[in-house]
Amino acid sequence: MPPLPLSAEMDFSQNSLFGYIEDLQELTIIERPVRRSLKTPEEIERLTVDEELNDIERAVYLLSSGQDVQGTSVVANLPFLMRQNPAETLRRVLPKVREVLHVAGVEMQLTAAASFLTILQEESVSIQTYSHSFLHIILQHVEHRDAGVSNAWLETLLSIIEALPKETLRHEILNPLVSKAQLSQTLQSRLVSCKLLGKLANKFEAHIIKREILPLVKSLCQDVEYEVRSCMCRQLDIIAQGIGTELTKSIVLPELIELARDESSSVRLAAFETLVNLLEMFDADDRSQTILPLVKSFCEKSFKADETILLSLSLHLGKLCHGLYGILTPDQHLRFLEFYKKLCTLGLQQENGHNDNQVPPPNQEQEKRYASVRKNCAYNFPAMIVFVDPKNFHMELYSTFFCLCHDPEVPVRHTIAICFYEVSKLLSSGVYLIYKELIALLQDESLEVLDALVDHLPETLELLTTGGESSVQESKLLAVPDLIPALTAAEQRAAGSLKWRTHEKILQKYACLPHIISSDQIYYRFLHRMFTIMITNNVLPVQKAASRTLCIFLRYNRKQEQRHEIIQKLIEQLGQGKSYWYRLRFLDTCEFIIELFSKSFFCKYFFLPALELTHDPVANVRMKLCYLLPKVKSTLKIPADKHLLQQLELCVRKLLCQEKDKDVLAIVKRTVLELDRMEMSMDAFQKRFYEKDSLDQEKEREELLLLEMEQLEKEKQQNEGRQNSDKVFEKKQRRDSKTSAVLPKTIPMSVAGSSSCTPSTSKEVKKSKLVRSQSFSSQALHPKYGNLEKCTGKNSTTVYATSVSGTGKSVLSYTENLENQILRSPDRQGRKPKTTGGNGMARRSRSDSWDFL
Question: Locations of Basic and acidic residues compositional bias (predicted)?
């Protein structure tokens, strides 16, 4: 707070004094609760512990004479004591814990249950010691009168069962269950018995389960309390896995059928869900004769019953249809499909004006339940595509999919956005049918929907551009007009919100765009936007995501002028920017350039601009550069880059001699040691750097390919212009001759040949390039869109120049194919590279590689 002016300090007027008094009164009111919260001397004395006591003695003292909060702290610290001194903890502390737990409150009970489980998971003692010391305490409190405490101890016990030996389980848990499961026991005791029986079913052999566990299971399935019947019913699928198919059919299935007809809706619901989980265990006869009638009856009564049943049915409908697939008649198949469609629009008929007079409009609570039903239907949509067959999607499910994508409730659209990629994969060649829905979800007003859709956006866009019935080029042309505005609007909507993580994710996923749309479209609609985000956004992760995506766009940009403009912009506006924040982002960009581009590219354009920041007036910039220097040095090759190495060493010496900031100087000294330990890469081939060198060669080869592609595109445009002029000349000849004879196809040969005739030497060079064509766009990006620099070209069909019009049409077919193909390495084609270095590896001088800028 700045000091008050002198006039204000000397102002002792009456009004001013009253103001000061009121302020002091307000401060007094604020301090009163603090005074009341302070401990009295007696309380402090009672809470004080002798500092000379060790951990075990302190724990025993606090459990014996301390307050509840101190005892709870000791119980929470029990895993630490077991790690430090298990023998003394078991001998002195654990008996005190056992005594305290008999009268402990809820908080200490919950803490003890969690601590006991942690001790088991950390394996501080052997399982025999654990069962001897802790199991009895757990069993004593499993039936605690508080439901929350009982559930906490029960979860601990269920986790322990997995690790206990069979003999211990049989004597300590299974044998007492015979009495605990009787009707004379409390409701809580019988509920605990149900869950324990389900857990024990997989721990014993089938004959033991049949003799000792199944009688208890049948008894609990017929309990007088519906809670017990429902709880036991939910354990039947676990028990069925332990006893096998035969016993399941003879014992479990009859019980399930009876429970499915129970008077309680919760029991019927549990029976339905258990039947769905056990469908795979039954053969076709059992499913068609026994289970299918029950399921049909359950579905027919679901709209008249409680909404909870409708919720469960909508959640399990996909799994149910999958399990019954193959035994349904066409009529039954259609009925299940119509039932699913009805659930997908449940609660929307009133909004669309289709409400019947007999059905009252739903209240707010019902609307929430109906929205949950539609959400479950969206979750099951991929399973329903399999149910109807993807070939029938357009006729059977497209209208339903449209409704789910445009549902008024956000959770429904969010769920269908999560499933969108799965739907795309299932539709395969018919994926183009849902293109409009993708655009709609990209333009959704809810960022939750957009966030869910973006998770698999690269894979979805790839399917849309390559999986349709039309060719790849046609698919791209169809997708572009609506896709680009939707993508830009989605990014801007995320940028205008406070959810920066969603914005960051979108920018990261947009790195796939070079695989989806053309280089020009990226340049004019996305690249400059990335640069704007870097210099205007205030969130560091968002800035870094934009920087990396911009570098990827630069990596696959196909025009010299555009690449030159981007590089100049990065250096002038970031590297030489007025704000130190811009210069920090420039160093981040340099790091991405090193990661994504070849060493020669970085050395040619970013090496010296990065070193200039050693003279930066801001210490943080110099510090960040020091951290980056080892990576910068790794881009050098000796002896070609010897002059750059000298520049690097000179900058490091200046930092050591002239740096005044102690933090920066300390980092410089550590960096110097690291730089001295680094091994330099040589121009000649070296075995120890084989992997890095081969990867760098692949990057450099792809960068050189961009130059060739651009040159060939220019020639293509020139040849197209010549061909157009030839066609005009041909039409003029036809009009002048006034003949109706059809000219043979070989007539344009002489014209095209004469118009496109060039020296044979350059044509041979270009033809040698044509023969080495491979996929570029389809292989330019890694399938995961993460490590784009690691991608390698795959073999593809060689494009031969077969046109009779000379190289004009040859270049035309080559450039069209090159949209999706990358050059094959010279060694694979059996051709000699222009220059070789080391072990016959193709080399090209860096000055020749990057003089285009």
Answer: 714-738
Q: Is 553 within 8 Å of 507 (Cβ atoms)?
A: no
CA angle (82, 85, 87) in 5-degree steps: 90
pTM recorded for the entire structure: 0.73
**Tell me, what DSSP letter sits at residue 445?**
S
- CA pair distance 277, 315, nearest whole angstrom: 12
From CA 292, how far away is CA 280, in angstroms rounded? 13
28: CB partners within 8 A, 6+ apart: none
**Mean of all residue pLDDT scores within the chain:** 79
Q: Which of 6-15, 156-165, 252-261, 425-434 has the lowest mean pLDDT?
A: 6-15
Quick one: 730 exposed, middle or buried, by C-beta within 10 A (0-12, 13-18, 19+)?
middle
E strand or H helix that includes residue 702? helix 690-737
Arch. (CATH architecture) of 283-348+365-457: Alpha Horseshoe (1.25)
Residue 232 CA: distances (Å) to CA of 187, 266, 271, 374, 538: 13, 12, 10, 30, 56
DSSP bridge partners of 105: none
Residues 6+ apart with CB under 8 A from 296: 332
Is the predicted pLDDT of residue 837 greater than 90, yes or no?
no
Top pLDDT among 695 and 119 is at: 119
Thinking of the domain 482-681, which architecture would CATH place it in? Alpha Horseshoe (1.25)
Does 411 sit behind a cis peptide bond, omega within 30 degrees of 0 on the bond before it?
no
Domain boundaries, the chain: 283-348+365-457, 482-681
CB-based burial of residue 78 (10 Å sphere; 0-12 exposed, 13-18 middle, 19+ buried)? buried
Q: What is the pLDDT of residues 300-343, one digit of tens each?
A: 877 766 678 888 899 999 999 998 988 899 999 999 999 999 99
The answer to whether the beta carbons of residues 345 and 403 sit under 8 Å apart is yes
Residue 654, pLDDT > 60, answer yes
Please tell me whether residue 836 adopts helix, strand or coil conformation. strand
Q: Report strand pairing: 841-843 vs 637-638.
A: unpaired
Q: What is the pLDDT of residues 17-33, one digit of tens each?
A: 455 556 555 555 554 44
Q: What is the mean pLDDT of residues 99-122?
A: 91
Residues in a beta bridge with 638: 682
